[in-house]
Amino acid sequence: MAKRINKDEFVGQVAKRMKASETTAQVWVDAVLDTMYDTFRGGKGITLPGFGGFYLDKRRDGCAFKFNPGQKLRALLGWSSTHKGPL
User: Considering the chain, what percentage of its residues have pLDDT values greater than 90?
Assistant: First the structure.
């Protein structure tokens, strides 16, 4: 299994990339996650170009959460032979 980072570590990385405080990055991460949740709850999917798409596949007995990775992520995972850009 791949090594995982926890939310605090992720927030720290976001803060560093944003050149902002961890408090500010925490607000941004929470806002993004809450907005994603509200979007799914509203029955819609989300497409993040270069990363992939997230959606709920509604079925008779419930629903499944689906992710369709973008070409850059597919190339990183070795799933694409056509991506020519940087990783």
Answer: 54
For the entire predicted model, the pTM comes to 0.76
Between CA 22 and CA 42 the distance in angstroms is: 30
Domain residue spans in the chain? 1-42, 45-81
Listed in order, strand segments (DSSP E) in the chain are: 46-48, 52-59, 62-69
**CA–CA distance, 87 with 81 (Å, rounded to integer):** 13
Q: What is the pLDDT of residue 19?
A: 98
How many residues are given for the chain?
87
Q: How many CB atoms lie within 10 A of CB 25?
A: 19
Write down the pLDDT at residue 15: 98
Amino acid type, 80: S
Decide if 75 contacts 83 (C-beta within 8 A). yes
Tokens representing residue 49 in the block: 């170009």
